[in-house]
Amino acid sequence: VLNTLVTDREMQAALDLAKVFIMCGADALIVQDLGLAAMLRKCTNIPLHASTQLTVHNLDGADFMHEIGFSRVVLSRELSAEDIAYITQRTDIETEVFVHGALCMSYSGQCMLSSVIGGRSGNRGCCAQPCRLPYEGGYRLSLKDQCLLKYVSQLSEIGVASLKIEGRMKGPDYVGAVCRAYADAKRGKPYEEAQEDLLADIFSRGGFTDGYFTNKLGDSMFGVRSENKKRYTFTKREYKRFQIQLKVEFQDSFATFTANTDDGLSFVEECKCEPAKRIPTDAEQLRAVFSRLGNTVYSLQEVLVVGEGYFIPVSMLNQIRRNMVNIFTQMRMLTKYTYKDEMYKIPKQTINRNKPMLQAQFLQLHAIPANVDLCSRIWLPVMESGTKAFIKIYEKYKDKCGIFLPPIVHDSDHAAFRHALLRARDIGIQHVLCGNIGQINHCAALGFAVCGDSGLNVFNTASAHFFTDEQRLKEITLSFELNLAQMQDISCRDCGIIAYGRLPVMVTRNCIKKQCHRQEGLKDRKGRNFLLSCDYNCTNRIWNCEKLYMADKDLSAFPFVRLLFTDESVQEAEKIINDYHWGAETVPDGITRGLYYRKLL
Questions:
Q1: Kindly report the CA angle at 580 between 577 and 584, in degrees rounded to 5?
Q2: DSSP string spanning 324-387?
Q3: What is the reported pLDDT for 214?
Q4: Distance CA 332, CA 353 (A)
Q5: pLDDT tens digit string along 290-321?
């Protein structure tokens, strides 16, 4: 696993680590950072698997990953059986699905809550799990663990290539028990409720849920961890993962042993034999000897004997069995892929010393002030594109207007989403702001000039150039999890930042609002109030409790900065635009500087 975001100054260490894995015989690398993926494509032919941190949740996203060279994609955990089937049966890339373990409240790759409030990034493997804490009204962000044990055969029928079990921070007893249960199910063992109950007793959060897979959302999906009801000790022996087919051919004074594993390894050895004087070496004896595979990953499946009436000493049979296991072990450690050293040089900084252009993004159309014409771009919500208010704003500001998209658009929502895009295009909108890879190709095909939002998690020069050069995005908004020094390391003339507003800290499939079409707050145990809003089809977004404010800082290193307006009044938005255009006279109370001046964790 290399599924973390990498700064320019960490890129060489990440490449060196990848080389170690490849030389040790790894079969694939799981990657999140598309800049790291671009570098790996230059120096190795090892397969790349797209991490669930890339938030691939629709067919366009899966196809995008295949087009840029990934061989497998780990789909978002929020997908239903119908979603998974739709993607898997229409794409050329292999799909991998989470079947067991912890569920994050947010779509993976889009949770910044731990990072923004505590400096510990979930995108960097340091999540402090604030979703597991109580909020006003209860544990409103804590989901039960997922268990899809009963659906293993269904996933196989769908065509899913791999089942994924979350548990890298769990103990060996938990991992052993869960992996054995799913391996047995994969091999055809019928589902037993008692088996699932045992897994729940070992570790769960008030039991299990299959709510995403069955598309049955709601309160029943939420739960908190309790003490384990049962202590389970897993027998520490190798699970029999590979089956061996053995063929023995007797001919004259030699016997040829050919063994094949069900994953494609082969072993051949010859030995001398002689006509049997008493009891010949037959299939029954061969099975008895070659079944003694002890604490290995192998089990004997089939024995085929060609010829009869010959004898081989048991000591020789034992030696051949040991040789076979040793050869298979050595073969598994062979390096399958090549690696060509590729030095990553931190690019020379390209610093823009002019005053940055202002962009303004509005969740609410009625909050747009008259001085918005001081901004070079006005981002409007695409799902409002058919309304009178939207058309009125466009007619006033014309080419300054662009549309921003909801971060999550499932395939079941594709028709309505496309209709909204076409409405905007027909009005005259030319620019679109995308925060997910599953939207880029579709928007480009409709003729839009595509800009990248912070949800793309651009963290280094390589990922910036991947989007601006390879994918031809007009501009990129850098991840706000970087500090300013790391942002200035990135050599890209088309990269800007979010410089004002409530930062988006979560995107959730579960709606936790009481009144869907009104903005509400989510108050934590410290009294901090996070804004809740609804995107298309009741997807929730959670916004930071404090507003980022940078109007008094030197932002001339960036060609553009974006002001993000969520719940501001017209008067508040007007003042903010004036502050950033003319200069701030005073700094408001209760603001945050985000992560821009923090040391990155």
A1: 110
A2: HHHHHHHHHTS--S-B-----PPPPP----SPPEEEEEES-GGG--GGGGGSSEEEEEGGGTTS
A3: 97
A4: 55
A5: 999 999 999 999 999 999 999 999 999 999 99
Token duo for residue 544:
């930071």
In angstroms, the Cα distances linking 418 to 383, 387, 421 are: 10, 16, 5
Question: Residues of 27-55 as b/e, b for ≥16 C-beta within 10 angstroms?
Answer: ebbbbbbbbbbbbbeebbebbbbbbbbbb
- The residues, ordered by sequence, that sit 6+ positions from 340 with a Cβ below 8 Å of its Cβ are 42, 43, 44
**Both structure tokens of 183:** 């391996």
H helices within 466-507, ranges in order? 484-489
Name the phi and psi angles at 492, rounded to 5.
-160, 120
* The dihedral sign for the CA sequence 67, 72, 74, 75: positive
> What's the pLDDT score for residue 229?
58
Structure tokens belonging to residue 535: 């995107």
Query: Where are the strands (E) in 491-601, listed by range?
Result: 495-508, 520-523, 529-534, 540-549, 560-565, 591-592
Q: What is the pLDDT of residue 237?
A: 76
Query: Taking a C-beta distance cutoff of 8 angstroms, is the pair 31, 51 a contact?
Result: yes
Distance of CA 150 to the CA centre of its chain: 24
Strands (E), 85-175: 94-101, 145-147, 162-165
For 567-589, write each residue's pLDDT tens digit: 999 999 999 999 999 999 899 99
* CA 570 to chain CA centroid, nearest Å: 38
Please, are residues 20 and 376 in contact by the beta-carbon 8 Å criterion?
A: no
Q: Cα separation of 501 and 498, whole Å?
A: 8
Instruction: Give the Cα separation of 331 and 260 in Å (integer).
Output: 12
Structure tokens at 206: 């008030």
* Six-digit token string for 354: 């002019």
Torsion of CA 487, 491, 492, 493, to 10 degrees: 100
Amino acid at 489: D
Q: Check pLDDT > 80 for residue 370.
A: yes
For residue 230, name the pLDDT band (cuts at 50, 70, 90).
low
How far apart CA 120 and CA 128 sit, in angstroms, is 6
CA distance 51 to 125: 13
- The mean per-residue pLDDT over the stretch 236-252 comes to 90
pTM for the model stands at 0.91
Amino acid letter, residue 267: F
